[in-house]
Amino acid sequence: METRMMDTSSLEKTPLLDRTATGAPSARLLIAGVLLFILLLLGLTASPPSKATYHSLFLSLGDNATAARHLFALTRSPHVAGTPANADAASYVRSALSAASCPAHVASYDVLLSYPVLRSLALSPSPPPSSAPATAFHLVQEIYPGVPYADAAAEALPAFHAYARSGSAAGPAVYANYGRVEDFANLRAMGVNVTGAVVLARYGKIYRGEIVRNAAAVGAAAAVVYTDSKDYSGDRWFPDGPGMPPSGVQAGSTYRGIGDPTTPGWPSSAGCERLSAAEVATSGMTPGIPSLPVSARDGEAIQRSIGGQAAPHDWQGGEGAPVYRLGPGPGFLNLTYIGNETLATIENVCAMIEGEDEPDRYVILGNHRDAWTFGAVDPNSGTAALLEIAQRLGKLRKRGWRPRRTIVFCNWDAEEYGLVIGSTEWVEENKEMLASRAIAYLNVDCAAGGPGFHASTTPQLDEIIKQATKKVQDPDNFSQMVYDSWVNSNDSKLIGRLGGRGTDFAAFVQHVGVPSIDMFFGGGYPVYHSLYDDFVWMQKFGDPLFHRQVAVASIWGLVALRLADDEFLPFNYISYALELQGSTKTLEDRALGMPVTFTPLYRSIEELEKAATNIDKEKKALELEVGLVGRRKDLLKVRELNDRLMMAERAFTDREGLFHREWYKHLIYGPSLHDDYGSNSFPGIDDAIEKAKSLNTSDSWRFVQHEVWRAARVVTQASLVLHGKFT
């Protein structure tokens, strides 16, 4: 608390102390002394502003000019992980955090990254030994007229698939829609032979690494993945509109593991144990066939070369597209990709504001920095928002605010390569600390890619994200709050769940069991992972006035402040139990008529609901007790209750992890077996049902029952943690 001393020099010049004035000087001096004492006493005993007052002040400090300035600095050049440009971006983030009174440091790791050396793709109108000339594709994203970043754009890496198998392949073209398991099953049902073919599939629906894996599983020689105009271009393309230009290509990783490929399950620290390149290649986590990403223009050219029966209606392209056919051939593709996989240094930038009362309890805010090109939306709109939060909190500190618990800022590296390499290495290195001390992890990648707020959480945090959005003005309609537009959106489900591994929350939720949130404005945006995701696109279409980035920073920061400052953690496990009841009913319906009972899981969820209700009553009683007898009474009781709320999420993890996916420890939320972007509740049960439906043997359904029991056991453990007493 600051003590403001009164300036007494002016008192000597007032009539009260004027010895020539009427009355006894000693009496006047006595009165002045008493007044001065009272003023000093009031200054010394005045209560500091409440935490809620500081939270309101935080919301008033949003600055779209600051967000724009940070984004402009971060997106001046392409900055792929492991390059000097990304190291420069790390230096900028570190300097910005330090300038906001958050001293920052770098946590470095040496990890296996992949870079393109040679790419080629040629199309012949018919297979050998035809003498018809082949057309070689340029595989270049065209620089649009008037681009202010022409020189920097020329520095961008050619669009490629990270960790793609090096080699050459040739074969007739076969169209496989989105490359899902069901798409290849449909091809088989329609009599289309994919063996030895080069598969043409379009982006969307599932992770690109799964597209390539699925193609390899049915015997394809290679895969070409393109951005279909129907899904990405819209009515107008950039720079005249927001859509992907005809030459635009979506780059990205095809690695199916998580973290550094050479250190699966342990941190990639200096001098550590590593898998060899051969062991990585045979792990099944990298593709077994070569692949390339191509543009809508090139994809359409290949489509025109394919004959055979017409594809189903929902496999067709948009207006003006040719009729999509299945093949194989007669168009014949010859593909070559050579990559360089090498150990490179990545840099996570971390900073913290130490808690005043509970410095050993951590609220972590995270965003990644590396990008395939300029990264204006993904991820640096989130980076700019993170830095804006740090600056706002720096201003609060100058006005006397101190958090109850420690706030940690993390700017991750190499997220794009392995879907979260930098954060995974850090989590694996700090696993035990996080397991015993982390309150929550709050993630933002694409802060702003268009209108519309979206959030995904672990369910105990549903209410806090709703409360925060009720206090932040809608950046697209100042007459209402974000919550108002959010609940009136067309989303079938207001709040999503964190089962996919699409970004940096994965290691926190699915490996350690830390309550988490991911949030953003805009959803999918058409120039994703292309050369056109730059500052100009953001200014024109993503967030023209940078109000959306400020709104995300306000919601993100307010949630962090509540988690860091509230005496009682604002967790609600009653909503968690209700969510699990619904998820269980969905799984039960899928196994209807099969020799499986979900009774053990329903019973454990009932116990969870009772435990959640009891701890909620405990919290209310303790709040009343603290309010009646004084703030400092029973602080240990408050701490113990908060620890139960914090640790209950950890109880949903199992040491053995998911079957054949042991790194994923969380039995409630995890990625779909056939889509790393997809999110499943009870992923172990879901995987087992899928397999049992395919095999339909007594053993396969018995394994489903085993997974039901496993899930029931972790839910029971969470109930015991909330109760806080031995059986």
UniProtKB/TrEMBL annotation:
<dbReference type="GO" id="GO:0012505">
    <property type="term" value="C:endomembrane system"/>
</dbReference>
<dbReference type="GO" id="GO:0004181">
    <property type="term" value="F:metallocarboxypeptidase activity"/>
</dbReference>
<keyword id="KW-0812">Transmembrane</keyword>
<dbReference type="GO" id="GO:0010073">
    <property type="term" value="P:meristem maintenance"/>
</dbReference>
<dbReference type="InterPro" id="IPR039373">
    <property type="entry name" value="Peptidase_M28B"/>
</dbReference>
<keyword id="KW-0862">Zinc</keyword>
<dbReference type="GO" id="GO:0006508">
    <property type="term" value="P:proteolysis"/>
</dbReference>
<dbReference type="InterPro" id="IPR046450">
    <property type="entry name" value="PA_dom_sf"/>
</dbReference>
<dbReference type="InterPro" id="IPR007365">
    <property type="entry name" value="TFR-like_dimer_dom"/>
</dbReference>
<keyword id="KW-0479">Metal-binding</keyword>
<keyword id="KW-0325">Glycoprotein</keyword>
<keyword id="KW-1133">Transmembrane helix</keyword>
<dbReference type="GO" id="GO:0050793">
    <property type="term" value="P:regulation of developmental process"/>
</dbReference>
<feature type="domain" description="PA">
    <location>
        <begin position="171"/>
        <end position="251"/>
    </location>
</feature>
<dbReference type="InterPro" id="IPR007484">
    <property type="entry name" value="Peptidase_M28"/>
</dbReference>
<dbReference type="Pfam" id="PF02225">
    <property type="entry name" value="PA"/>
</dbReference>
<dbReference type="GO" id="GO:0046872">
    <property type="term" value="F:metal ion binding"/>
</dbReference>
<keyword id="KW-0472">Membrane</keyword>
<dbReference type="InterPro" id="IPR036757">
    <property type="entry name" value="TFR-like_dimer_dom_sf"/>
</dbReference>
<keyword id="KW-0645">Protease</keyword>
<protein>
    <recommendedName>
        <fullName>glutamate carboxypeptidase II</fullName>
        <ecNumber>3.4.17.21</ecNumber>
    </recommendedName>
</protein>
<keyword id="KW-0482">Metalloprotease</keyword>
<keyword id="KW-0735">Signal-anchor</keyword>
<dbReference type="InterPro" id="IPR003137">
    <property type="entry name" value="PA_domain"/>
</dbReference>
<dbReference type="Pfam" id="PF04389">
    <property type="entry name" value="Peptidase_M28"/>
</dbReference>
<feature type="domain" description="Transferrin receptor-like dimerisation">
    <location>
        <begin position="596"/>
        <end position="722"/>
    </location>
</feature>
<feature type="domain" description="Peptidase M28">
    <location>
        <begin position="348"/>
        <end position="535"/>
    </location>
</feature>
<comment type="similarity">
    <text>Belongs to the peptidase M28 family. M28B subfamily.</text>
</comment>
<dbReference type="Pfam" id="PF04253">
    <property type="entry name" value="TFR_dimer"/>
</dbReference>
<keyword id="KW-0378">Hydrolase</keyword>
